[in-house]
Amino acid sequence: LGGAFGRGRCTQTLEGHTGWVSAVAEMSCGRVASGSKDGTVKVWDLERGACTASMDGHSDCVWCLEVLDDGRLLSGSDDATLRVWDGESSASEVVKARQNSVYCLKTLSGNRVATGGYDMTLRLRDPEKLEARGPVLKGHTGSVYCIAELSGDRLVSASDDGTLCVWDLPPAAQPSSQNHSQAVGASVGGSVRTCKYPEGSRKHKLFEVFRLFDLDGSGYIETQELLVLGQSRRELGWKQGSW
User: Fold this and answer.
1) How far apart, in whole angstroms, are the C-alpha atoms of residue 144 and residue 128?
2) pLDDT score, position 131
3) Distance CA 2, CA 7 (A)
4) Is 229 helix (H, G, I), strand (E, B) or coil?
5) What are the beta bridge partners of residue 85?
6) Choosing a second label site near 193 at 20 to 30 A (CA), which of 81, 92, 146, 242?
7) Nearest in space to 78 (alpha carbons), one of 67, 95, 62
8) Cα dist. 90→8, 22, 61, 83, 190 in Å?
9) How far apart are CA 105 and CA 121, in angstroms?
10) CA 118 – CA 178 distance, rounded (Å)
11) What is d(CA 127, CA 214) in angstroms, rounded to the nearest whole number?
12) pLDDT one-digit tens code per residue, 116-151
């Protein structure tokens, strides 16, 4: 993707969902999977630009997708279930998540999967049966939308309560946290970048704030503002600096 992304142009458009696309995951053999508000999971062949599988089963929006080590797809949905798909057919295993809506998934080292959702908790699961493993991780006061694995057997989660929680695995008594004044919406890799809506009306919002945190320190070490150039937020540019 590097060359095309660097030139800022769309090289391919894949159409087929009847609702917005809410999740994507890279698969093997030049394929990607997508999840949608329409409740389906679709698999696409990028070389041919064609949908090779459309998998029905969820009864509400598919918020998140992860590819398991054995190549199967794991999906989480507003219907409060997790489903495992073989990637080639509509056959799936279904597990009640016990988290209401499932907003985020992350495969972890040590043969684990972490899930987060509307119930403000994180759960560690066995990827084979998706059964909860160990205690429920509690600390957020809002829905959990993002999960990333850190070095040192740690996990970081982001919530619309405006905080990041950093967890030891197996979990310590309480998570450490970093605060925002409003909803946290993104996390990347081993360092954490978070965004929030700035003060004031969303209707007239021009900037979103990104912060880079030092998780071993007492706060964030860099702040950058993202200039929203188009009302649709499809055109973005940096006001200052770059990551």
Assistant:
1) 23
2) 83
3) 9
4) coil
5) 73, 92
6) 81
7) 62
8) 35, 19, 17, 11, 34
9) 12
10) 20
11) 31
12) 999 999 999 988 888 888 888 999 999 999 999 998
Identify whether the C-beta of residue 38 lies closer than 8 Å to the C-beta of residue 17: yes
Q: Concatenated DSSP letters for 16-80?
A: --SS-EEEEEE-STTEEEEEETTS-EEEEETTTTEEEEEE---SS-EEEEEE-TTS-EEEEETTS
Three-state helix/strand/coil letters over 110-167: CCEEEEEECCCEEEEECCCCCCECCCCEECCCCCEEEEEEECCCEEEEEECCCEEEEE
List, for residues 3-56, the tens digit of each pLDDT value. 555 567 888 899 999 999 999 999 999 999 999 999 999 999 999 999 999 999
**What would the two tokens of residue 226 be?**
């993202």
pLDDT, tens digit, 9 for 90 and up, residues 155-197: 999 999 989 999 988 643 345 555 555 555 544 333 333 334 3
* Rounded average pLDDT over 87-106: 82
Bridge partners of 212, per DSSP, are: 193, 222
